[in-house]
């Protein structure tokens, strides 16, 4: 079932009644409601939003990724359940016990999929992609010679020109990319939780201060879907530094973007569930290949 994404940017009160998320004005007037079970992502972007603890409990029960934005209106934290799978402890043990060769093989698959999808986006936009396609064929176990970094330099130049520098604090469309990647990261973390995996334990990323290393790993092949939306926004609103509601609304459409995975097309949030479920099976020794999307 395709889950809904809700974005709230006014000082409303959020509560629960009959398993429905209720959005009310401070005076008590009900503005809208939605079944919690239908929600996949709830983005809260106002410092005076308040909510009941009963609602928080219900959001957690249905594995809703509740994303909180900071004073700069950028996603800064999220609420995820600690118990989202019936055999979670077993999956945790398999994940922790994963061998180094397995993790290196999984990372090789991840970077191959990422570079191929970057090349496919360049093809779609009528830009040169042959170098990336060749790089994808040369990636070694664990990407030991960092072909990912080499591919990135070629990719960003081909996609946005020689003057563009991918930097968190850089010129547009870096702002669109930043917002989109944070949303994607939250979506991956939600899917990992739903598949019974611990987002902290990465297959490649390792950082004592990062609680979402595995999410940062698994999101890599999905980044071109963000890049496409960011490029489109950059064409519509060139040189825009401030993120307005209409920009965020377009970036939130990422969650329902059509993604080809296997022989079918699925909304991105459904495709992510397939990817993370396949990763759980890899850790359990039931298969050796992660199911990633093919951009197109």
UniProtKB/TrEMBL annotation:
Keyword vocabulary terms for this entry: Antiviral defense, DNA-binding, Endonuclease, Hydrolase, Magnesium, Manganese, Metal-binding, Nuclease
Transmembrane segments: none
Domain of life of the source: Bacteria
Gene3D superfamilies referenced in this protein's UniProt entry, alphabetically: CRISPR-associated endonuclease Cas1, C-terminal domain, CRISPR-associated endonuclease Cas1, N-terminal domain
Binding-site residues, Mn(2+): 148, 205, 220
Biological process, per Gene Ontology: defense response to virus; maintenance of CRISPR repeat elements
Any single Pfam family the record assigns to this protein: Cas_Cas1
EC numbers on record: 3.1.-.-
UniProt-recorded Gene Ontology molecular function terms: DNA binding; DNA endonuclease activity; hydrolase activity; metal ion binding
PANTHER family per UniProt: CRISPR-ASSOCIATED ENDONUCLEASE CAS1 1
NCBIfam families listed in its UniProt record: cas1, cas1_NMENI
Biological role stated in the UniProt entry: CRISPR (clustered regularly interspaced short palindromic repeat), is an adaptive immune system that provides protection against mobile genetic elements (viruses, transposable elements and conjugative plasmids). CRISPR clusters contain spacers, sequences complementary to antecedent mobile elements, and target invading nucleic acids. CRISPR clusters are transcribed and processed into CRISPR RNA (crRNA). Acts as a dsDNA endonuclease. Involved in the integration of spacer DNA into the CRISPR cassette.
Known partners and oligomeric status: Homodimer, forms a heterotetramer with a Cas2 homodimer.
Protein name per its UniProtKB record: CRISPR-associated endonuclease Cas1
Protein's organism: Draconibacterium orientale
Classification of source organism: Bacteria, Pseudomonadati, Bacteroidota, Bacteroidia, Marinilabiliales
């Amino acid at each position: 079932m395709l889950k809904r994404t809700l974005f709230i940017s006014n000082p409303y009160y959020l509560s629960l009644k009959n398993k429905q998320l209720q959005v009310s004005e401070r005076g008590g007037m009900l503005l809208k409601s939605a079944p919690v079970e239908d929600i996949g992502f709830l983005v809260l972007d106002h410092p005076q939003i308040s909510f009941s603890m009963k609602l928080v409990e219900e959001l957690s029960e249905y594995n809703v990724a509740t994303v909180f934005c900071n004073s700069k209106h950028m996603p800064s934290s999220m609420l995820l359940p600690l118990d989202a799978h019936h055999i979670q402890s077993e999956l945790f043990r398999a994940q922790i016990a994963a061998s180094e060769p397995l993790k290196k093989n999984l990372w090789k698959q991840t970077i191959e999929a990422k570079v191929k999808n970057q090349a496919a986006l360049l093809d779609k936009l009528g830009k040169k992609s042959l170098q990336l396609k060749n790089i994808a064929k040369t990636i070694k176990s664990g990407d030991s010679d960092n072909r990912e970094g080499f591919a990135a330099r070629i990719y960003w130049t081909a996609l946005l020109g020689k003057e563009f520098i991918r930097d968190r604090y850089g010129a547009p469309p870096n702002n669109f990319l930043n917002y989109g990647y944070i949303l994607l990261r939250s979506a991956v973390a939600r899917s990992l939780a739903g598949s019974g995996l611990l987002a902290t334990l990465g297959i490649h990323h390792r950082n004592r201060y990062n609680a979402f290393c595995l999410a940062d790993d698994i999101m890599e092949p999905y980044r071109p879907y963000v890049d496409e939306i960011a490029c489109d926004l950059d064409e519509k609103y060139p040189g825009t530094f401030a993120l307005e509601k209409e920009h965020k609304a377009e970036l939130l459409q990422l969650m329902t973007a059509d993604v080809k995975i296997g022989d079918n097309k699925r909304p991105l949030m459904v495709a992510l569930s397939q990817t993370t479920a396949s990763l759980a099976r890899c850790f359990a020794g039931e298969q050796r290949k992660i199911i990633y999307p093919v951009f197109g």
